Amino acid sequence: MRTDPAAELFARLAEPFTGEALFDRLDGVVYFVKNERAEYVLVNRTLVERCGASDKSELIGRTAEDLFPAPLGRTYREQDEALIRSGEAISGQLELHLYPGGRTGWCLTNKLPLRDRGGQVVGLVGSSQDLRPPAEAEDGYDDVARAVQFARDRLEERPSVEAMAEVAGLSAYQLDRRIRRLFGLTPGQLLLKLRIDAAAEQLRHTDRPAAQVALSCGYSDQSAFSRQFRRTIGLTPLEYREAYRPGG
């Protein structure tokens, strides 16, 4: 009977392989493992730094709600608990993370359920990859810059990828490849990022009602905007305005 090479190798290891040492050496990647109570049991150095802590032990046994400001921490914990209940993975979810000191950063988050031998979910493993900014040294991407500016100037009209490609003088496939290379995102994810960025800017620096902000960013109704904003940032538009408006 043929043996499983991976199982055979892991059975010989002195300690269980968790990937912790590997992820400690990767810049711009948050890595964590949580138990069935959504408590951290393993983290990498990047997550420790993002939480403003000095040692991993300060995170172990705590939930996201313990570590991140309200109501953001509660939203993260609820997301973890929903995954543990359903067993449904989160794949390539674009999120705007808020860090200590008010700094923000876009990332792509993945979370997978961990199951015991009986198939029950007993925890989760996850990572968040920082999105790299477009490389300033990249040449020959003026066409993409035109497409992005076109979309940014017309968010209220819900610009399509096809319209962006036409402005760039590229096929939709060519634009997709170039945007992925420059931003690490699909065109659809980039459009979402532009809309959420624009909405967050208005919420921080204007008194416009959320309904007007929604319309200006291409959302046909406020409820759809609020759901997308909360899914992406972890806060409702009004919670975000209250928490991150200068002088608020």
Question: Please, could you describe this protein's structure?
Answer:
This protein is an alpha+beta fold and 248 residues long. The chain has 12 helices and 5 strands. A hairpin with a 5-residue loop joins β4 and β5. The radius of gyration is 21 Å and the shape is globular. The N and C termini lie far apart (67 Å). Keywords: DNA-binding, Transcription, Transcription regulation. It comes from Aquisphaera giovannonii. This is Regulatory protein SoxS.
CATH top level label of the largest domain: Alpha Beta
Inertia-based shape: globular
Mean pLDDT: 90
- Whole-Å distance between the termini? 67 Å
Radius of gyration: 21 Å
The CATH homologous superfamily of the largest domain corresponds to: PAS domain
By DSSP, the count of extended strands is 5
Strand line-up across the major sheet: 2-1-5-4-3
**And the CATH topology of the largest domain?**
Beta-Lactamase
Strand share of the residues? 15-25%
- Give the helices and strands as they follow along the chain: HHEEHHHEEEHHHHHHH
Helices, by number, come to 12
Quick recap of the structure?
It comes from Aquisphaera giovannonii. The chain is α+β, with helices and mostly antiparallel strands and 248 residues long.
